[in-house]
Automatic annotation (TrEMBL):
UniProt name for this protein: Type III PLP-dependent enzyme
Family: Belongs to the Orn/Lys/Arg decarboxylase class-II family.
Domain Orn/DAP/Arg decarboxylase 2 C-terminal per the UniProt entry, residue ranges: 43-395
Necessary cofactors: pyridoxal 5'-phosphate
Domain Orn/DAP/Arg decarboxylase 2 N-terminal: 51-300
Pfam families: Orn_Arg_deC_N, Orn_DAP_Arg_deC
Keywords: Decarboxylase, Lyase, Pyridoxal phosphate
Length: 430
């Protein structure tokens, strides 16, 4: 999904995922203006059918090779986790709170995996006591603390080794390995770490975890990373002289956010499956393993919109500024302040756009900082106070990745639309 002449990324995303009726943007048949009247602005709205579509499309693309779990960090609202649970997903978590949210959503603890470089004693205690399926070890101190917790609870805890792979496995917009990293054990020390885990009677080494990068849009890169992960799994299984139970190949599947981005080609992913399936089937060390992909952004991102109301429009030295009641305190990623080096615009659209002329404008929020800018030069029609704008691709890494307490503005509503019915699912609805 790349831009074509006269058609913006926002236009393409609206056409692919939503609908306009007489120029008015709808989510699953519901007019966004009506949602704004009911719930107030700004708000997040999520389409449950789009969550399901993303999950099913990916699950079908990797069928026979891997199962798909949901990375809860992308959006941890239990109602959203529950949508993916109902599709058959387990959960990948990064904290005790996400463990509780996943459990509240109905995911059995044995279907939950726990990764993260700085797990607290409370997190380890809660997850071991709760019967979590697997804890992914990231450093030697953590290994010892998990073993101690397992001893206190009289269990042998299933663990995986998270591996910081070498440079051959790298790719994606944000590389997670191949360099000094707080994440996992360096590939160069893999055998020594395997031996250390095997020597601990309160731990059972059941798998490995590889996460080479995030926001990957190239199918060939992902397929190469997954093949590399299988090589590491074979190496570990050979060292312990028994088959592995879990091979977690991570997430990292991306979605288009910026002009020029091309959507991940699931057809190319599907075309790469026969070789990977044959490789797994031919190796008894891997043939019975649960091979896992655990994306978050890919599953949740396209289903969400962040909708804000225009408070004022002004011209300043020839530039148009659309000032809204939403901003970086709710959507830090869209402002470019969550990891972007060069700040680029997320796709933004007017909720009412009947096809008139558009011109570039900056969309800014109400905060007293120049960082509070949701778009810098996005093409929008003429707007006035009371109109609505929507930031697309906002279902993942939005509200919970943002400084909601900054300057004391109210928290936005979060709304799930399912089967033509809307309900609030934010904190009050948990």
């Amino acid at each position: 999904m790349s831009d074509t002449a006269g058609e913006s990324l926002a236009d393409r995303l609206v056409a692919a995922n939503f609908a306009r009726c007489d120029g008015v943007l709808h989510v699953s048949g519901l007019d966004l203006r009506g949602l704004a009247e009911t719930y107030g602005t700004p708000f997040f709205v999520y389409d449950a059918d789009l969550f399901r579509r993303a999950y099913r499309d990916l699950a079908q693309a990797v069928e026979g090779f891997a199962v798909v779990d949901y990375s809860v960090k992308a959006n941890p609202v239990p109602a959203i986790i529950r949508v993916f649970r109902d599709e058959g997903a387990g959960a990948e978590i990064a904290s005790g709170s996400e463990f509780a949210a996943s459990w509240a959503a109905g995911i059995e603890p044995r279907h939950i995996l726990f990764a993260g470089p700085g797990k607290s004693d409370l997190d380890i205690e809660a997850t071991v006591a709760g019967g979590i399926g697997e804890i992914h070890l990231e450093n030697s101190e953590e290994m010892a603390r998990v073993a101690e917790a397992a001893g206190r609870h009289g269990v042998v805890q299933r663990v995986a080794i998270r591996i910081n792979p070498g440079p051959d496995a790298q790719g994606g917009a944000m590389r997670m390995g191949g360099k000094p990293s707080p994440f996992g054990f360096d590939e160069e020390e893999l055998e020594a770490i395997v031996d250390a885990v095997e020597a601990e009677p309160r731990l059972r080494l059941s798998g490995i975890h590889l996460f080479a990068g995030t926001q990957g849009l190239a199918a060939a890169t992902l397929l190469s990373q997954w093949a590399y992960g299988l090589s590491l799994a074979e190496r570990v299984a050979g060292r312990i002289a028994r088959p592995l139970e879990t091979v977690d190949l991570g997430g990292g599947l991306g979605i288009p956010y910026f002009s020029g981005d091309t959507a991940l080609d699931l057809g190319a992913i599907r075309a790469g499956m026969p070789a990977l399936i044959a490789r797994v089937a031919s190796d008894p060390r891997l043939a019975t393993a649960r091979i896992v992909l655990e994306p978050g952004r890919f599953l949740a991102g396209p289903a969400g919109l962040y909708v804000a109301k225009v408070r004022a429009v002004k011209l300043s030295r020839g530039s148009r500024f659309v000032i809204t009641d939403g901003g970086m305190h709710h959507h830090l990623a869209a402002s470019g302040n969550l990891g972007q080096v060069v700040k680029r615009d997320y796709p933004v659209t007017a909720v009412v756009d009947r096809g008139g002329p558009r011109s570039p404008c900056a969309v800014v929020g109400p905060l007293c900082t120049p960082l509070d800018m949701l778009a810098r030069a996005t093409p929008l029609p003429d707007l006035a106070a009371g109109d609505l704008v929507a930031v697309l691709q906002s279902g993942a890494y939005a509200l919970t990745a943002s400084p909601t307490g900054f300057l004391g503005h109210p928290r936005p509503a979060e709304i799930l639309v399912d089967g033509g019915t809307a309900r609030e699912i934010g904190p009050a609805g948990w």
